[in-house]
Amino acid sequence: MKKLSLIIACAGMFVMGACSSDSSNQSTESSTEAVAGGQENVKDDDSQQDVVKVAVGSKDHTTLVAALKQADLVTSLSNAGPFTVFAPTNAAFDKVDKATLDGLMTDEQKEALQDILQYHVTVSAIPSEQLQDGQSLGMVNGQNVTISVKNGKIMLNNAATIVASVRASNGWVHVIDGVLLPPKK
């Protein structure tokens, strides 16, 4: 009788363990489903933010964030990098003709928008102190941006000035006061 009780107790523990294991698998599966969609959807309030989350967290970059979404570049810039992003402010976008900007935010102009946005990104993490007068940076779109330094101000293509810099987990975000337009190919 003691032997039968022991066997029943062991079987009961085995069944309980299997049920417990099964529910933890379901929990893991639903956690995985919640994160689907790319690294940009991972919620992490403790780690340093990536370049996209830096922009998303800035009230001065809502136009840039909308453009990144329209161009389907959020996932790419949320990856490990490293990236240096020259991030135009909303005021910088306000200097662009409204009809031109509105036209770029359409599905028909997605490639042109991607080209412009990729002209604001280089695949390396460059702090502003390392940017030098006359330096040429290869941008993601395959073209170059020229750096000039005058009176302590760092400019890109003599068209935009770096006004602030923020370190991100996957590179640098340099806030600029102008939108860079790639040269005609």
From TrEMBL:
Region Disordered, residue ranges: 22-48
A GO CC annotation given for this chain: extracellular space
Signal peptide bounds: 1-21
Residue span(s) of domain FAS1: 48-180
Organism superkingdom: Bacteria
Biased composition (Low complexity): 22-31
SUPFAM superfamilies reported in the protein's UniProt record: FAS1 domain (SSF82153)
Keywords for this protein: Signal
PANTHER family, sorted: FI19380P1, PERIOSTIN-RELATED
Protein's UniProt name: Fasciclin domain-containing protein
